[in-house]
Design a protein that fits this description.
Layout (H helix, E strand, L loop, with lengths): L4 H8 L3 H8 L7 H13 L6 H8 L4 E6 L3 H6 L1 H16 L3 E6 L3 H13 L5 E4 L7 H8 L4 E4 L9 E4 L2 H14 L5 E5 L5 H16 L9 E3 L4 H14 L4 E4 L2 H13 L5 E5 L13 E4 L2 H16 L8 E3 L3 E3 L7
Parallel strand pairs: 1-2, 1-3, 3-4, 4-5, 5-11, 6-7, 6-8, 8-9, 9-10
Antiparallel strand pairs: 10-12
Helix pairs in contact: 1-2, 1-3, 6-13, 7-8, 9-10, 11-12
């Protein structure tokens, strides 16, 4: 038979409600009573489960992570794995658990968030992407729920967020290619309803403008974050023009673009973003921008947990540094 709170109460000679208050770390219980209850718990090998503890504390000690992809895409795109590793690292330090959910569409995400927060399954929400006019952020703000976003929201009021300086990162990459002699530089971006794509495109555009290079719309394409779409976008560009260099906003897009370039036996410099592990194993190896996805996740969890624990924080966001990792795809 499993040991219950009643068994602990009987051995400690207190009421079951007193045991619950001890588990909840109530300051109204005397130290002497706490010692008796803890001693009884130890003798009976009783460990309150997470749900019982959360009911007692009115806190689940759990963070809900909302993934914007299907389970299949999660394991294809390493960004989410790396970000979650950072989240988990900090959460474990603070004694928090992680609960994952997949939202294939924006409305689906909001329904999941409502279920999580209204049922008190989680204390706070972490969103792993930001859309323009993001409905999930709008709901969380209006419902006054604790949350943090990996990405830069359009409206920064009452939002905790973590991001790279995506404008500067792309501006620097474009400048790097221009200084290597490239003028016809193509851009393959992720979905344009994402703020990260918008910010990186603005950085690309500004770098060209400052150096007097006209924007060529035939060299600009949109693609979902996968190899197939990257391959298709690159082939669409090559139908009309052959750029000397291509910048993509994600390594998975770059892998597809690289396949198209090799298939047509073209010599085109190529840069990706995220510096995923497979970038170093492409042929040629892929130059990519390391966005420190693990650090993004770590800082997101840090901001959210600090709020949940009512800690004083000096700022509502972190900007995580990026670094260009130069490899064969932009050399010679």
């Amino acid at each position: 038979m499993p040991v219950t709170i009643k068994d602990v109460a009987k051995l400690a000679k207190v009421s079951p409600s007193t045991v619950s208050r001890v588990i909840a770390e109530s300051p109204k219980i005397s130290e002497e009573t706490k010692k008796r209850v803890y001693k009884a718990m130890k003798e009976l090998n009783y460990y309150p489960n997470a749900i019982a503890r959360s009911l007692a504390n009115k806190s689940s000690k759990t963070l809900g992570i909302i993934l914007p992809n299907t389970a299949e895409d999660l394991f294809v795109n390493p960004f989410f794995i790396q970000a979650m590793r950072g989240i988990s690292t900090y959460a474990q330090k603070r004694g928090y658990y992680i609960m994952l959910a997949y939202g294939e569409e924006e409305e689906n995400e909001i329904n999941i968030i409502k279920d999580y927060t209204n049922s008190k399954l989680v204390d706070g929400i972490i969103l792993l992407t930001v859309r323009q006019n993001d409905k999930a952020i709008k709901y969380l703000r209006e419902a006054r729920r604790s949350f943090v976003v990996i990405g830069r929201p359009k409206n920064l009021e009452n939002v905790l967020w973590v991001d790279n300086d995506n404008f500067k990162a792309m501006y620097d990459v474009t400048t790097y290619l221009i200084e290597k002699g490239h003028k016809n530089i193509a851009f393959i971006g992720g979905p344009y309803n994402l703020n990260v794509t918008k910010d990186r495109f603005e950085g690309y555009k500004r770098a060209l403008e400052i150096r007097g290079i006209s924007l060529d719309k035939e060299l600009i394409k949109e693609a979902d974050f996968n190899e197939v779409k990257g391959y298709q976008a690159m082939n669409e560009i090559l139908k009309n023009k052959t750029p000397s260099a291509v910048i993509t906003t994600d390594d998975l897009i770059a892998f597809g673009a690289l396949n198209a370039i090799k298939e047509q036996n073209k010599k085109i410099a190529l840069v990706g973003f995220n510096n995923t592990p497979l970038a170093a194993y492409q042929k040629p190896t892929l130059t990519s921008v390391d966005i420190n996805a693990e650090k993004l996740g770590y800082n997101a969890a840090k901001l959210l947990i600090s709020k949940l624990e009512n800690k004083k924080v000096d700022k509502n966001h972190y900007i995580v540094e990026t670094k260009l990792i130069e490899r064969e795809s932009t050399k010679g």
